[in-house]
Amino acid sequence: MRHMIFGESHGPAIGVVLEGVPAGLELDLEAVQRELDRRKPGQDPTATARRESDTVQVLSGVFEGKTTGAPLAMLIRNSDQHSQDYEAIRYTPRPGHGDYAGFIKSQGCQDYRGGGHFSGRLTAPLVAAGAVAKQALALRGVRVGAHISSIYGITDASLEDAGALEAVAAKPFPVLDDAKGEEMRQAILEAKNEQDSVGGAIECAVFGLPAGLGAPDFGRNVEGIFAQYLFAVPAVKGVDFGAGVAFSLMRGSEANDPFEVKDGRVVTKTNHAGGVNGGITNGMPVTFEVTIRPTPSIALLQESVDLRTGEETEIEIKGRHDPCIVPRAVPVIEAAAALAACEVLGI
Ligand SMILES: Cc1cc2nc3c(=O)[nH]c(=O)nc-3n(C[C@H](O)[C@H](O)[C@H](O)COP(=O)(O)O)c2cc1C
Ligand SMILES: C=C(O[C@@H]1CC(C(=O)O)=C[C@@H](OP(=O)(O)O)[C@H]1O)C(=O)O
């Protein structure tokens, strides 16, 4: 299943075209909308105040409730753009955002309003695509779930089983431990109050992938496939599998996952490898943690350069920004993981 996301944050609409969706899938459009509702802006003081309904419309690829196998196109209209907020910074790129790199790549022709095609808004169609992927995966017994694992050093409880993630998906603030979630919310509001932002991390797991998928080689390596989808999510700056960076503090005797037989199946007692050995799935859940940077657009005065004159200058960013991207990125990471899992399975 391949996908192509189109649109700009302040254009008329954004959307996605999915190619290679298996024919005959009974598409649950309400489930697609529920995923979009988990991500949509304007729902909490810890998120951007921009209000969008993020109502999805299927334009093609579905007939009489079932996928046809033809390209499946989904559209989401934009309605609450404040483009004026971006006039003053048109030629003075925001530190940390895609403005300068985008200006150079597009030779100054990019849609600068609201970050254009670089905006986190473009993760709405990604979530829609991921929701279709999740439905295709469910038919193969594969499930994807995620939670906020940390925000600005405050950590959630660790993930023990697949069931816990279903409850998390229904929460407005997707953590396992709600008391920790409240501490995280306070840290976000404190940063916002100080005209600043914070980052954090998301832990994600894919349950039900059979052992033996993938290859050690470039292009077919399971970790590589997942990483490619995950790094395409704006603000993702790190991806690590299983114990990840904690491996650097372990000995082999702690890091290795001992084998055992459970219900006639070879499994491992621990899952430090994150379900992948040698680039191939080993039948344990594929687990990884994604690091999300603090939101680039902060209200504090920042240093920039006027690209018309080449002179150094200072900018003050107006507008409505997420003081922390992590909570709204949870369904986005699940969507990217679902699309990656489809590729691993050859869907
Ligand atoms: C769900 C989501 C919401 C985001 N909201 C904002 C925002 O309000 N303001 C902002 O400056 N960046 C926001 N971002 C991050 C920028 O889009 C991102 O940092 C920018 O495109 C540069 O990409 P990079 O961080 O991957 O280098 C958001 C990202 C996501 C995934
Ligand atoms: C609109 C969304 O998030 C936007 C992501 C974003 C950015 O720079 O990434 C900047 C802000 O855009 P604007 O200035 O137009 O309000 C956020 O509100 C969304 O996620 O749907």
TrEMBL record:
Its EC number is 4.2.3.5. Reduced FMN (FMNH(2)). FMN binds at residues 117-119, 278, 320. GO terms for cellular component: cytosol. Pathway: Metabolic intermediate biosynthesis; chorismate biosynthesis; chorismate from D-erythrose 4-phosphate and phosphoenolpyruvate: step 7/7. Keywords: Amino-acid biosynthesis, Aromatic amino acid biosynthesis, FAD, Flavoprotein, FMN, Lyase, NADP. GO terms for molecular function: chorismate synthase activity; FMN binding. InterPro entries: Chorismate_synth (IPR000453), Chorismate_synth_AroC_sf (IPR035904), Chorismate_synthase_CS (IPR020541). Its cofactor is FMNH2. This reaction introduces a second double bond into the aromatic ring system. Belongs to the chorismate synthase family. This is Chorismate synthase. The gene is aroC.
